[in-house]
Amino acid sequence: MPNTEILVIGGAGYVGSHFVLYALKHGCRVCVWDNLSTGHRSALRDVRFLAGDLNDREAFQAHLAGNRYHTIFHFAASCLVGESVVNPAKYYENNVIAAFNMLEAMRATGHDRVVFSSTCSVYGLPEELPIREGHAKNPISPYGKTKLAIEWMLEDYSAAYGIRWAALRYFNAAGCEPDEGLGEDHDPETHLIPNVVRHALDLDPRLVIFGNDYPTPDGTCIRDYIHVTDLAEAHIAAMRKLDEIPQIRLNLGTGTGLSNLQVVEAVSSACGKKLEPVFGPRRPGDPPELVADPGEAFRMLQWQARRSHPDRIVAEVLRWMSDHPGGYAEVH
Ligand SMILES: NC(=O)c1ccc[n+]([C@@H]2O[C@H](COP(=O)([O-])OP(=O)(O)OC[C@H]3O[C@@H](n4cnc5c(N)ncnc54)[C@H](O)[C@@H]3O)[C@@H](O)[C@H]2O)c1
Questions:
Q1: How far is the CA of 273 from the centre of ligand 1 (A)?
Q2: CA contacts within 13 A on the Cβ side of 23
Q3: Residue 112 and residue 228: Cα distance in Å, rounded?
């Protein structure tokens, strides 16, 4: 769909900036709306950039009123599970109220399509693995609850006001595009792969694995790592599918899990250095295993992960972090 005009809220963040790159390569005309609270201006090139907050509803609605977007992609959120437990107010405001602001502005200006970044945290503790979309939704963190609340809002807005929407429930986003100057740069960084790589590059003296007494083969948590560019590809496929189906809910994962210690092993062998993690206590609310059943995404979108092999992901993250030990702060 060349020249499709899209708005990417949160497009300066980790997943959003990889999506922007992919969308540009596939002929979309991209505008990014981001308050840069956790994103990086230097992760974006060749786009119209607006430094705006989704919680400034008036400004956001005025922007939508003056523009016509085919689809809005909503990546912006606060997304630290632990922080959401101690500061849920931030999460209800920046996730639920911000999404409400977005939907109200869409409704007022006749925009009727949105692709939303949801999460496997909507499921809570898995009762069955791999996790299918119909699995019970019992989120155990305020973060997961806010994402599920937004899915409910989307359902109701769709029924009453005709908004077409896709909620894409990512498992663990990973990897990057070092050749394009894109990587992962969060502060604090809570994701395992960048933290193991930081330790491997001597950017962090300690490597802590939270819990080694889980009911898994090596005692550490198992997660499903999905490449950010695979995620990007699924977003474009979902945008197209909204022509046919008004409400889409899909898991985005690989269907294969990797334990924390397997991640450490993969980084050790990529950098030829034996890494010795220390084991800390379990983090509250960390399920032992989270693995997607990606079958429905394949059936609906003919999409499957093609870039998510752990060796590839680790090699990319190693390369980006070696080139950018200070993250985007060094990019001008
Ligand atoms: N990274 C993952 O593994 C993962 C997994 C599941 C779901 N998700 C979801 O994917 C989305 C992107 O995650 P990420 O890792 O790229 O996060 P990120 O923090 O890197 O990106 C979020 C972006 O949104 C912007 N933002 C936040 N609040 C805003 C507001 N009120 N107004 C305007 N911009 C705002 C930030 O500045 C940032 O650029 C989030 O919605 C997250 O919940 C991420």
A1: 32
A2: 34
A3: 26
pTM of the model: 0.97
Q: Atom 34, ligand 1: which residue's CA is nearest?
A: 34
Token pair for 268: 């050790």
* pLDDT tens figures, 137-178: 999 999 999 999 999 999 999 999 999 999 999 999 999 999
Nearest CA to ligand 1 atom 19: 38
Q: Beta strands 222-223 and 258-259: pairing type?
A: antiparallel
Amino acid at 124: G
Question: In the numeric block, which tokens belong to residue 264?
Answer: 């450490």
In DSSP terms, 280 is beta-bridged to: 210
CATH superfamily of 5-174+225-252: NAD(P)-binding Rossmann-like Domain (3.40.50.720)
43 lines ligand 1 (CB under 6 A): no
Q: Is 53 in the pocket of ligand 1 (CB under 6 A)?
A: yes
Return d(Cα 294, Cα 125) in angstroms, integer.
18
Residue written as token pair 């689809």: 71
Q: How far is the CA of 266 from the centre of ligand 1 (A)?
A: 27
Instruction: Return the SS3 of 207.
Output: coil
Q: Among 256, 270, 259, which residue's Cα sits nearest to residue 199?
A: 270
- Mean pLDDT (the chain) is 96
Q: In what order do the strands lie in the sheet with 258-259?
A: 258-259, 222-223, 289-290
Looking at residue 325, its amino acid is: P
Closest CA to 167 of 229, 116, 205, 96: 116
Residues 45 and 21: their CA atoms lie apart, in Å, by 8
Does the domain formed by 178-223+256-292+307-330 have CATH 3.90.25.10? Answer: yes
